[in-house]
Amino acid sequence: MRVTYHGWCVQESDEALVPVPFPDGPTAGTFLTPYERRFDLYSAGHTHTAAVTVEHWSSEPGPDGRQVWDERAECVFDSASGQVAVWSDGRDEEFALQGPGRWQVRAHCAGRAEVERVCREEGLAYGVECYLLQFWPTS
What we know:
Elements: E1 2-3, E2 7-12, E3 32-35, E4 38-42, E5 48-56, E6 71-79, E7 83-87, E8 91-96, E9 101-110, H1 112-122, E10 125-137
Parallel strand pairs: 5-10
Antiparallel strand pairs: 1-5, 2-4, 2-7, 3-4, 6-9, 7-8, 9-10
């Protein structure tokens, strides 16, 4: 995932259904900011490529212990289509949820201090910061 200006987002794929499309309205410094049919993630690095893993669950997963996470936050994400777009300086990636509806999202991030250092000292970083996004249907 390309990250530019510290930010990227996940939003409904059909931009006409997103009242405030990315990048309008970001909250600098806040790890996760929810909007209607969109949520923004704030990166510790200015411009870099981050690793992102997306998981779908049928119910709330237990705490993730695969690594130590620097940040963790949750929000609710409504999708009319079940199709999702990932944006930074444009539409970068797309993925499908298990269907339309209301989803709980848990976002994790690791490597924040290191990506901040690498971006400051070297300009660009590749795969230093990583994210885990877990989606499950709300009840």
